[in-house]
Amino acid sequence: MTYPEIKLRRGKSDSVKRFHPWIFSGAIQSLPDNLKEGDLVSVTDENGDFLAVGFYQIGSIAVRILSFQNEEINTVFWKRKLEAALDVRRKLQLAENAQNTTYRLVHGEGDTLPGLIIDIYNDTAVMQAHAVGMHYAREIIADVLIDIYGGELKNVYYKSEGTLPYKAALNPQDGFIRGGTDVNVAIEYGLKFHIDWTKGQKTGFFIDQRENRLLLEKMAKDRKVLNMFCYTGGFSVYALRGGAQLVHSVDSSAKAIDLTRENVELNFPETDKHEAFAEDAFRYLEKMAGEYDLIILDPPAFAKHKDALRNAIKGYTRLNETAIRKIKKGGIIFTFSCSQAVNKDQFRLAVFTAAARTGRNVRILHQLHQPADHPINIYHPEGEYLKGLVIQVE
Ligand code: SAH
């Protein structure tokens, strides 16, 4: 199969040969005149020898690679890729499990499909394109999705209004492209969550904290829990199941507080142990007394880009310092960063700085990360974005 050819400069093929899934615009020697954004292209080295097939896009990442084999990107290709992704989730016991109906099926580069996210909520898939080529491929992907689930998946909601480059002027409309449903309560490890894929952040739910919530549940018994940046209240619901004495959820968004209350009500309609507050996290932490002995800090990405790094690290330091200073003796903090631009060591250094400023004795009990349905392509270490520490404060 031959697609229009993009030729790389001399010495620029090495990262492709090491299976890195992106080609930066600076590596390109020549490209066809009539190439359009989102077109499939063949990438060759300076001698014209084949390297990869991918989607072309205008911008610093010029090609997102779909295959390192010279093959046609057709139904057979999509079926092979999506079946491979589903097979992994089955083996992880996340798919085809009545106690768990929500998981990430496709995690972009981690599933060697750069620019594509697919999250599953019961019999609905929420698909998000981050690359123009994926937008054009959405119909074939939707058909293959329905096909590989053999009747178990009925609806495909396409949600790319906020994720495609707006200069591409594609004007994607969020909405169902297959089926349609109002049933939006999904189950995560036996707990129910109302998923708002229409208005919610990302695809409606932060699936990536599932395993960390489960760990929190084990540590919550009889504790007084503060779930900071609660969004849909995921950690709060697990803490209640774990036997927490009380759980307070905080988020600056009133909508998030409504979602949290709704999810607590779905699982524990009788509980009087939960309260939720729409407030700024920093303000809440400053004014709170030292009543909590388990605190979760799961803020939004403080650094979306490398240039915001310094401020982001300051933000993490300040946040953790206040929590470490105020938590009860023997208390536990689950602290996270989901900024791709902040690496594991930088985050740990921020927490170290925070601890040192308080003068309290702090131990790391667990080092946390994103779960297996958000895999990291080893040739694309940039895909490691979620990191966390569970620390105990004496
Ligand atoms: N822990 C959540 C995900 C958190 S997402 C989960 O497990 O699903 C980050 C949340 O932080 C968002 O809901 C956002 O509304 C909230 N947020 C952002 N800035 C904030 C601030 N300054 N104070 C409190 N909440 C904030």
Topology:
Layout: E1 5-8, H1 14-17, E2 22-24, E3 28-30, E4 40-44, E5 50-56, E6 61-67, H2 75-91, E7 102-107, E8 116-121, E9 124-129, H3 132-136, H4 138-148, E10 155-158, E11 175-178, E12 185-188, E13 191-194, H5 210-219, E14 224-228, H6 234-241, E15 246-251, H7 254-267, E16 274-278, H8 281-287, E17 294-297, H9 309-326, E18 331-337, H10 344-358, E19 362-369, E20 387-393
Helix pairs in contact: 2-4, 5-6, 6-7, 9-10
Bound molecules: S-adenosyl-L-homocysteine.
Residues 206, 209, 229-232, 234-235, 251-253, 256, 280-281, 298-300 line the site of S-adenosyl-L-homocysteine.
Keywords: Cytoplasm, Methyltransferase, RNA-binding, rRNA processing, S-adenosyl-L-methionine, Transferase
Organism: Pseudoprevotella muciniphila
GO molecular function, one term: methyltransferase activity
